Each structure stands twice: as C-alpha cells, then as structure tokens.
What does this fold into?
Amino acid sequence: QQRDKLKQFQRRVGLNLQRERALARQLLQDGKREKALLLLKKKRYQEQLLDKTENQISNLERMVQDIEFTQIEMKVIEGLKIGNECLNKMHQVMSIEEVERIIGETQDAVEYQRQIDELLAGSLTEEDEDAILEELNAITQEQMELPEVPSEPLPEKIPEASPVKNKPKPELVAAS
It folds into this structure.
C-alpha cells in the first residue's frame, strides 16, 4: 500500500514539475527572472524528493520480496519440522536394537536352514545312492514295453521260396 501511495505521490510531483517548468519559462519571457529562479529552485527540491521517493519505493519492494522469501523459508522449515517429527516417531517404533535383533534372527534362521540342507544332502550313504539308482532302473524297465523275443532257435538256412505259377509278370500287368 505504501508503495502505491509513493507512486501516486511521484506522479503528482512529476505533473507539478512540468507545470512549474512551463511557468518558469513564462516568467522568463515576462522578465521576472527572480520569480523564475525561485520556481526552478523549488523544482530542483521536488526532483530531489522524487529521487528519495524512488529509493523508498525500491526499499519497500526489496522488503516485500524479503518478506515473501521469508514466508517460503518458514514453510520449508515447517515441512522439515514435520518430517523430523515423523522420523523420530518411526525411530521410536523401530529402534536400532530392534533392527539388530531382527537381523540376527534372520541370520540364525538362514544358518539353521543351511544346516538342515547339509544334513539332508549328506545323509545318504553310497549304498543308499546305489539302491536309489537300481530302483530308478527298475522303474525305467517297467515303463518300456519291449516285444517278446521268441525262445526257439532260428533256422540256419532259409528255404528258398517256390515260384508261384500263374502269377502275371509285372510288365504285362502294367501294359493291360
């Protein structure tokens, strides 16, 4: 609000400066040098007021920016505060000792499982392994159904086949 009031003041003084300058010219033309000089001094004083007003406006704008930035910083700090409180609550729920205990229990469980695996893998002797392989072969044999092999001995010489009479020759059959 103050900035706006200062800008209005600047406009008003600026218009006065223009009028006084024009009036000083008129006074010089009329031969009233002393009055024109007095008006120009007054004009000079008002120009200095305008410079001071400009500095004040600049200071006010800088202050407004600082306030806005400080408000943003306050929101950031409030967010950090809430985040810190949340972390503290989480740390209360999960203490370092609790995390170490859970990690230790997990490592114990993994070690226990490894021992069980070793016992199971190492509990079979070589005889057990051989017995398992024999059982596997027996099951494989049962699943394969092979045709029966004749138990009679095969003849040593195969008798020659007797020619069939009245059998047409292939060449004649194809021609007819």
Summary: DSSP finds five helices and no strands in the chain. Confidence is low (pLDDT under 50) at residues 172-176. Residues 33-93 form the longest helix (61 residues).
